[in-house]
Amino acid sequence: MKRNRIAIHTLFLFATWACVACGKSQASQQAKDDAKFEIGIYKDIPFSEMPDITRFYKEYILLQSAENPNLEKIDSLISEYCCDSLIQNIKSGKYDYDIFLQAQDCDSSWSKSVVPADNDFDGIYYTDYIGKTTVEIEIKRDVSGKIKNVILGDIKDLQYNKSLSHKMFEGIKFSNSNICRKKVLAKYISCGKDANNNAPTEEAIRRITGNSPNTAIEFTYLEGNIDYGDFYFTVKNALSDSICAIPSGSILNLDIAFYNNVDGYHYLVPYALIEGIEILRLPSELDSLLWTTEGYRIFQYDNGDDYFADGLIRVIDKDNYVGYASEDGKIIIQPQFVFGFPFENGKAKVTRSGELKLVPGSGGEYHYWDSDDWYWIDKSGNRIEQSGF
Fold first, then answer.
1. What is the pTM of this model?
2. Cβ-proximal residues to 215 (8 Å cutoff; 6+ apart), any chain
3. What residues contact residue 100 under an 8 Å CB cut-off, 6+ apart?
4. What does the angle CA 165 – CA 252 – CA 306 come to, to the nearest 5 degrees?
5. Pick from 59, 63, 101: which is nearest to 81 by CA?
6. Cβ neighbours of residue 273 under 8 Å, at least 6 residues apart?
7. What mean pLDDT comes out for the span 254-264?
8. Disulfide check for 194: which of 32, 64, 130, 216 has CB 3.0–4.6 Å away?
């Protein structure tokens, strides 16, 4: 079997060179070099001589995220690290997103998080601390080691330690149609101008959905009494005025249409358009007070707001950290725990680590927080000794 493989490779190698010699190959020199690289005519470039992709990304992010990006330095950096074909594609406007970061925006903090992928693949990881995600970028090189293509790999949600095949998108399938509809439970936060308004994607969105992306809302996705993070989705134009008048903290049923064929919409998830809204419950005075003064929300429990226990109620910040507030809306203990139980007899059981798990046999309806580092706090947030864990 080994001899057969060698013979096949030798025959393929001879055939390739014969085609080139006879002038039958019309490929560019770049394509020829890439073909030679693939079949092993060129020897592997020593790792020490390969361009440092980590350095490229750190410098590139800092340059791109500057208030006034230095285009000359950016072009020089790209010329140093990228092959001619990729540079030509960038200059021609082929990409309506940043090909290197696989994103449509950039933050300087990403530069500090860039790490090489090492043995996983040729590329890097970078972390978006605001979005709480780690992005996997794979690099394809030409025979000289320069970048010829960039591939977006997985995106990890740091908060829930899972891929962004998020619960929001469970059950969405595009078998015989490019549209899939789903009803979701949400807690309304705010509305504002849609990021796709006056963007290169606007025309494609209008053509496919029949709706101009004017208004988007921010909401928290709720399922099984669990807050699964914030989303920003476009609202159908006919609903814009009515939804922007809804008080923050309202619990809503949203009818969402997911589209799988919007050209230029460069995200891992399909484009979403909110087509219908049903108000299930308006926010309590306390919830409105917490949101307007602190930007916090009442912890969700048993299909609604948490209950007061021992004079305190659990609240969460935008990162889902748990804290405690009094009946007048004063924050007694700032959100800082990944999970915390209600107070009882002057103390509460909390943790700063662990993960959310399903209760066996509950059919996905009930969850619990699993941690190896539980401890007790008093009403001042101080750690206290307590036996019996």
1. 0.51
2. 191, 192, 193, 194, 234, 235, 237, 240, 243, 244
3. 57, 60, 137, 150
4. 90
5. 59
6. 209, 211, 233, 234, 235, 236, 256, 257, 259
7. 84
8. 216
Residues in the chain: 389
Q: What phi and psi values does residue 351 have, to the nearest 5 degrees?
A: -155, 155
Q: Which residues are bridge partners to 274 per DSSP? A: 235, 256
Distance CA(56)–CA(194), nearest Å, equals: 32
Own/partner pairs, 189-194, CB within 8 angstroms, 24+ separation? 189/217, 189/218, 189/219, 189/220, 189/230, 189/248, 189/249, 189/291, 190/217, 190/218, 190/248, 191/215, 191/216, 191/217, 191/218, 191/235, 191/240, 191/243, 191/244, 192/216, 192/217, 192/218, 194/234
Going by C-beta distance under 8 Å and a sequence separation of 6 or more, which residues neighbour residue 259? 178, 179, 208, 209, 270, 271, 272, 273
Q: Please give the mean pLDDT across all residues of the chain.
A: 79
Cβ proximity of 249 and 188 under 8 Å: yes
Q: Which amino acid is at 155?
A: I
Lowest mean pLDDT among 103-112, 141-150, 327-336: 103-112
* Whole-number Å distance between alpha carbons of 150 and 59: 17
